Amino acid sequence: MGHVIMNEILTYVTLLGLWPRSRKSTKTISYLIILSSSFLFFGSLLYLVVHRKFGSNEIDSIETVTSQFAVLYYMTFFTLKREGTVRIIDQMSDFSKFGKPPLFDQHNKRLNYLLSYFVICLFVAIVGVVALPAIYTGSCHKANEQLNLTKTCGLVAPVWLPFDYNGYPLKFLVFAWEGYCCIITYACSGISSLVLVGTMEHLIIRIEQLKLMFPEILNEANRHIREQKLKNWVQYHLALFGIGKLMTATYTYCLSVIVLCVGILFGCIGVSTMQSASSNNSVFLFLGWFQSLIVLSVCGQRLIDTCLSVGIAVYNSRWYDMDVSFQKSVHMILIRSQKPILIYTGPFSYLSHLLILSVLQTAYSYINLLSARG
Predict the structure, then answer these.
(1) Which one of 14, 54, 126, 287 has the largest count of C-beta atoms within 10 Å of its C-beta?
(2) Range of the domain at 133
(3) What is the pTM of this model?
(4) Membrane topology per the record (predicted)?
């Protein structure tokens, strides 16, 4: 599928199987990928349930279950709502009606570089999550001896299987499958979240174009042409807000994972990093999730600020020198511009700087709770 925007990121998501290769592509491959990469989640969950290990000594396993549930939840809803994301990108790639924004190619190229940088950081975090448990196997065995623990060493997380897998090559095969699960789930969810970031940034570029168009309307001497340009401007404004509504309807389900899981996950990571018997990959897990939280929240805040700046730009223009009919239209524009596009992450929260504080506050509460229980 050819698009003008975010070609590199869409290529990555296509290779991972979450993005359609053509208009007629089905979601079968996406669901098979989600199913095949759910081994780590179900295996770790069964390990906790069968062995009844829900205390702070097994915080690494609880952390893995929470993180894997979060990414599988995100991938599932991203796939379910994929048609909406495709429609958004199609509309953002269409310049036939309102024209291409000034310096669009430069902005698009810069955004692609920035998104690629985030992909590199994401893969560094994934490598850390997968590799560190294997690298620090010796430290894990020493911690077991010193603290009289029975933790399984050398794996991303212990899983329950109906047979003993502690010997070679079964343990290596389990580690390989766990590594596959981590790479697929974290890469798919992380890169697909950058697709959402890219669409919001391109919407910001379009809104900035809208602001630049308004002074051109005021400079038009012919009243009839000026009214026609204003009508076209209003249609563009409504079209952009229509895309914003589609974003909210499409993204809310998968982004609700931030409210549901990320605060709990950060709380588990906080407790895990304070334990001497930690699996050592918690820091990389935190960095990967924290990057996604920061990028999404900052982008959502930028979208809010840019929407509100439309009203400020219109108000600061020379609209009061125009005819009465034009002034009445501007009043309606100013009223509409006071309501920004909000990308909701649940019934009461949306992407903004406040979401970061809310997640960290939740994490702090869970750190205190888990530490008290321990």
Answers:
(1) 126
(2) 7-373
(3) 0.92
(4) Multi-pass membrane protein
